[in-house]
Amino acid sequence: MQRRTVLNDMPVRDRLPFWRDVVCTHVYNVSPGGWDNPATFQGYWDVRDSGSFGLADVQSVDRRRIRGPREIGRDGCDVIALQRAIGAPVHFSFAQHDIDLAPGDFSIFALDWQHEVTSPGGIGLRSLEIPREHLAPLVSGGGPRRPLTVRGNSALGGLLAAGMDAAWTHIPQLQPGHGEAVLRNLAGLVALACGASADGQDAARTAGRSARLEQALAYANRHLADPDLSPASAAAALGVSARALHAIFEPTGESFARYVQRRRLEECRAALLADRRRPVIDVALGWGFTSLSTFYRAFRDAFGVTPSEQRSA
Questions:
Q1: Of 68, 71, 135, 221, which alpha carbon lies 20 to 30 A from 311's?
Q2: 164, 212: one domain
Q3: pTM of the prediction?
Q4: Are residues 169 and 80 in the same domain?
Q5: In which element (H, E) is residue 218 found?
Q6: Could you tell me where the DSSP H helices lie in 1-142?
Q7: Which residues pair with 43 in a beta bridge?
Q8: Torsion angle, alpha carbons of 157, 159, 162, 167, to 10
Q9: DSSP 106
Q10: How far apart are the first and last CA of the chain?
């Protein structure tokens, strides 16, 4: 299920009441505060739930959110949260622990723990809510004992980011059962951060393989136009060996080099159709091909026509 609300699309007088009474009080059971002027209140709420798991972006100019006994008592939820700071640093204050997150860092904690979240620039969080009953078998002791931090620039943080970003992109296109499977997979990495049980280590390995593939795919797509993109350069950038990169792609039935060529050809075809006056060589070179003859041969092999025939079809 996907829902998105942008406060700027609402009448000014309705923005703060909607955020305070609907998003914060009714949906998330937190008490917001710290805004300067109700007339300039801004924010958005983007939800991509699947099954019993919740995935959402919640960003606004409020600088404080409190979840105390009253707020916890309203829902009584038994959920573990993975929250990622987006846009600005965020500070979490728990009863006996403080956590400071830079943008891209993660916190992991139980939502029935009292806490306060603050940020001088307005609070932005991408959050995955995992039912404790799902996470408990995967974690030694059944769940986190205290709030945890995973830095975005750590190896585990990179895998969490890749998995969360992939889930965010793909879940709206999946059937509900498939979307929940993706989030269950991501929960395996959360278990690893919490101290995985034997079952959790198996789940974490599965989730880790999926996340490493997403990292590699994302890197390839960001660098398609770079003619120097290769398995060796990608492996070095991802911090793995060329053999490990090959193993990451093996379950897809497509090598890294094959994937890059297919995606380049897809982008070239789209560019040729988008601007029929653009020279073919300009399109080919713009998407990383270094030889026009190689491009023509690969294009015909992939689509059954030449670039010129594709334009005139």
A1: 221
A2: yes
A3: 0.76
A4: yes
A5: helix 198-222
A6: 12-17, 69-75, 132-135
A7: 60
A8: -110
A9: E
A10: 39
